[in-house]
Amino acid sequence: EDGYRLWLRYESLATTQAESLRSQARRVVIASPRTATLEAAAGELRRGIEGLSAGAPIDVIDMPAEGPGEGDVVIGTTGGDWRGAPEQTEKAIGPGGYRVSSQAVHGGTYTAVEGQDQSGVLYGVFALLRALQSGNSIDSIELADHPRVGLRLLNHWDNLDRYVERGYAGQSLWDWWRLPDLVDPRYTDYARANASIGINGTVLNNVNAAAEVLTPRYIAKAAKLADVFRPWGIRVYLSARWSAPRDIGGLDTADPLDPAVRAWWAAKADEIYAAIPDFGGFLVKANSEGQPGPREYGRSHADGANMLAAALAPHGGVVMWRAFVYSETDPEDRVRQAYTEFKPLDGTFADNVLVQVKNGPLDFQPREPFHPMFGGMPGTPLMMEFQLTKEYLGFSTHLVYLGALWEEVLQTDTFAQGGGSTVAKVVDGRLDGHELTGIAGVANIGRDRDWSGSDFDQANWYAFGRLAWNPDGDAHVIAREWLQQTFSTDPAFVEPAAELMMRSREAVVNYMTPLGLTHIMGTGHHYGPAPWVDDLGRPEWNPFYYHRADADGIGFDRTASGSNAVEQYHAPVGEQFGSLESVPDEYLLWFHRVPWDYRLRDGTTLWQALARQYDQGVGQAEAMRAEWETLGQHVDPVRRARVADYLDIQVREAKWWRDACLAYFQARSGLDWPDGVTPPPLTLDDYRAMQFPYAPGN
Ligand code: BDP
User: Fold this and answer.
1) Helix 402-410 and helix 458-469: axis angle, to 10°?
2) What is the DSSP string of 471-507?
3) Which of 120, 266, 351, 536 lies most in the core, judged by the most C-beta atoms within 10 Å?
4) Do 621 and 637 share a domain, yes or no?
């Protein structure tokens, strides 16, 4: 059990269920003209049924002249006459929609998987397999659904030398050196896994992009990957380096208003589409953390995005322009900067541009308030960017289920158009009536046999796909689904394990950054605690910038008396965050600077509360480890032991986080230890000396 099969295990069901499936799924019938996608769907169905029913090989045939027979599983696009008069269910309407149903025939039944289009068939097949793997019977089955968001993309931060920036699961999957000649079968398994959760696009290379990926050699390599992914409904996208016309095009400028630059990009787009007819488009990180961009020429982000958009528009491609910008010279509070820069550009982007925004205004922290651009840019399609790879949450070493974090963000009310204006509604286009919609997830996938660096990190890949499909999805339900398919359908396992996953996110917040603390991780690699760091080149790279702890107090004043970041939120959100009366405890130090003896609503002082939260985080990690001793009994020994080993690391490091942070804050505040708190076993200097010089870095 090396984790390779992910949630697509198709292990044999219990005897009676397997027998019943065998009698009701005797052959796969393709009802529409065969295409690569329908064949992929049929092949997956056959594989799933054969595995689950532990039965003999089953046939895949075209629809026979006499129509479907009892025990057939028929797949096809809607509108055929194979199912009688095809009725639509509201839920199945729209691209990618499907309906799975039991139909009567000759006194028995057959199962129909109808898609609105080719991808819909594929998604219907995976929905059926998900239901069967989760312990449902194929009898009287009725499933219907459709994706709510158009672009559901992974972003790989993979370099061309196979190094994965912020990757904790080994090298890049893409073997650029041997492509396009050698096609690793893993590419197909990657595509299957993505298709099974509705992901329909992948950006192959790092946002800190090398221009070489746009040279003919690499276009041919990307084209080969696109060929493998296409049957699975997945399009390829590339990160484009802004200065490519200079780097590889022989021009001496990358000014977006220069006709030669525009012509270069238009020709480049033509060249890419000649090799990849369904190429998705470009993702761009510009004028951010040293990356080149249009501002070098006095042009705006909109000028830059629109120029690329014009090159892609004739081919139907999109530009995903990232809003992760903050200046090295601007003294403005870092979390204000993206909004300040992009808000005036709202409504000026071309029709095929999305602005891609991280969930919070800082950088993928264990907890941040939502980014004020959500709800603040009604005239622009905003693409959500989540991070699956846990750069700031203990890498692939700590068990943290991100579904809980993402649900919290998506369900937050921006109040942009009064109550009920959730981030989910901004992202799926409902709030402002956008047709073009997207969600991106920074991938946590590499060459490790288990793909994600740990068994439980696979859940974050899974949950991302499911929430991209439906941003109103329920993270707890998704956790259950994943557990059933990945480990066991036994309710004695599934429910407590799902609850453990749901609590895991709060645990990491508590032992790393409680009460609105943020960005106090180790320098560069972001692993382990380092709240004391204050000597890095740029102020906002230093943990100290974010907490400013001294003898008087702790926290970052973002109210009107401070940076006034609260003004970027709509009423009443800004008021709620801005007032000590109403700010939720979990954002206290994000928005406010308070003295150490400040009393929280429950009467404890800030110093007591901080010590309590850190300790609670450790307790939660210990509880997870203890629970796994029981839950692990339901799991095969190999994966059980691996999860247990990781939990041991997590408990040890949760203590390290608690002790190091409290030792530091005690030294800054000069206060005595609160009653009942055991002082850390080591000195602050000891903690400062603990470094991870060779942690997977940036
Ligand atoms: C930060 C990462 C850095 C990325 C950057 C980005 O530390 O490696 O390049 O985000 O999103 O979180 O561009």
Assistant:
1) 20
2) TT--HHHHHHHHHHHHT---HHHHHHHHHHHHHHHHH
3) 120
4) yes
Give the residue, 498 or 692, on which the prediction is more confident: 498
Q: Is 391 a catalytic residue?
A: yes
The predicted pLDDT at position 85 comes to 45
- pLDDT value, residue 329: 82
Considering only CA atoms, which of 225, 109, 69, 252 is closest in space to residue 158? Answer: 225
Residue 576 inside a domain? The answer is no
pLDDT of residue 88: 61
Residue-wise over 176-197: b if at least 16 C-beta within 10 A, else e? Answer: beebbeeebeebebbbbbbbbb
- Count of domains observed in the chain: 3
Task: Please check whether residues 135 and 277 belong to one and the same domain.
Answer: no
289 catalytically annotated? yes
Distance CA 479, CA 507 (A): 17
What is the pLDDT confidence band of residue 60, given thresholds at 50, 70 and 90? very high
Q: Copy the structure tokens of residue 265.
A: 């990009």
| pLDDT at position 83 | 64
Identify the burial level of 54 via C-beta atoms within 10 angstroms of its C-beta, where 0-12 means exposed, 13-18 middle and 19 or more buried: middle
**What per-residue confidence (pLDDT) applies to 582?**
98
From ligand 1's centre to the CA of 288, what distance in Å?
9
Q: Give burial (CB, 10 Å; 0-12/13-18/19+) of 140.
A: exposed
How much of the chain exceeds pLDDT 70, in percent? 98
With a CB cutoff of 8 Å and minimum separation 6, the contacts of 115 are 75, 76, 77, 78, 96, 97, 98, 121, 122, 123, 124
Catalytic-residue membership of 627: no
pLDDT at 87 over 70: no
Q: How far is CA 566 from CA 369, 421, 583, 592, in A?
A: 11, 18, 11, 10
Look at phi and psi of residue 233 and say left if phi exceeds 0, alpha if psi is from -120 to 50, else beta. left
Distance 647 CA to ligand 1 centre (A): 27
**Which atom of ligand 1 is nearest the CA belonging to 698?**
8
User: Rg (Cα) of the chain, in Å, rounded?
Assistant: 26
Q: Which of 163, 164, 208 to mutate to test ligand 1, by most ligand atoms within 8 A of the CB atom?
A: 208
pLDDT value at 33 more than 70: yes
Burial of 693 (0-12, 13-18, 19+ CB in 10 A): exposed
Are 375 and 519 part of one and the same domain?
A: no
Query: Given this model, what pLDDT does residue 80 score?
Result: 61
Co-location of 50 and 198 in the same domain: no
Residue located via tokens 């969930």: 359
Query: Which atom in ligand 1 lies closest to the alpha carbon of residue 285?
Result: 13
Q: What is the DSSP letter of 447?
A: S
Name the pLDDT band for 82 (thresholds 50, 70, 90): low
pLDDT tens by residue, 203-249: 999 999 999 999 999 999 999 999 999 999 999 999 999 999 999 99
Give the Cα separation of 72 and 630 in Å (integer). 41
Do 77 and 204 belong together in one domain? no
Tokens in use for 645? 């080993």
Q: Are residues 68 and 175 in the same domain?
A: no
Does residue 575 form part of some domain?
Answer: no
Amino acid at 500: L
Per the residue annotation, which of 165, 391, 448, 540 is the catalytic one? 391
Question: How many angstroms separate the first and last alpha carbons of the chain?
Answer: 31
**Does ipTM come in above 0.95?**
yes
